[in-house]
Design brief:
Blueprint lengths: L2 H35 L4 H25 L10 H41 L18 E2 L2 E2 L10
Antiparallel strand pairs: 1-2
């Protein structure tokens, strides 16, 4: 059997296996994170999680398929390992970059949600203004009142 074909088979088996493992791991551990991002809406979190997994599979399997071709024929075991290490290394980098991009975007959404949920002002009020225009209040006369004429 041609070693190039062996390299293709091993590359596909390992790449598909890694993609499935990473997708399942992200799906299982990302449910809690998505529920927090989506304000506790479990049903929506499950739906978004499933859509992210499907997109993850499509992008990664598409990349694995496009990156399958080998320019040079593999003639010996050394070239087989070198070709596999380069191809699998690139697949792992793509998986990592996609994972980091997902986490970055979801964290941005989560931060925005946390800011919207926090209705307590960061600094307590330090004083009061006048109650009516020109009238005095707890702090005395209103400094923004219209000046009196004819004084």
């Amino acid at each position: 059997m041609d070693l190039t074909v062996v390299a293709y088979v091993v590359y596909l088996l390992v790449s598909v296996g890694l993609t499935i493992w990473v997708a399942r791991t992200l799906s299982r551990n990302g449910k809690v994170f998505l529920a927090d991002v989506l304000h506790g809406n479990e049903k929506l979190a499950d739906a978004v999680n499933h859509l992210l997994v499907v997109g993850f599979y499509l992008v990664n399997f598409g990349f694995v398929a496009l990156y399958l071709s080998q320019d040079d024929a593999v003639r010996d075991a050394r070239q087989l390992f070198e070709a596999l290490s380069v191809k699998l290394g690139v697949v792992l980098l793509v998986l990592g970059v996609l994972h980091l991009a997902n986490v970055y975007v979801l964290n941005k959404i989560r931060r925005r949600g946390v800011m919207e949920r926090g209705h307590v002002p960061p600094v307590p009020p330090q004083g009061w203004t006048g109650t009516a225009r020109g009238s005095g209040g707890p702090q005395g006369p209103n400094p923004w009142a219209t000046p009196a004429t004819g004084a």
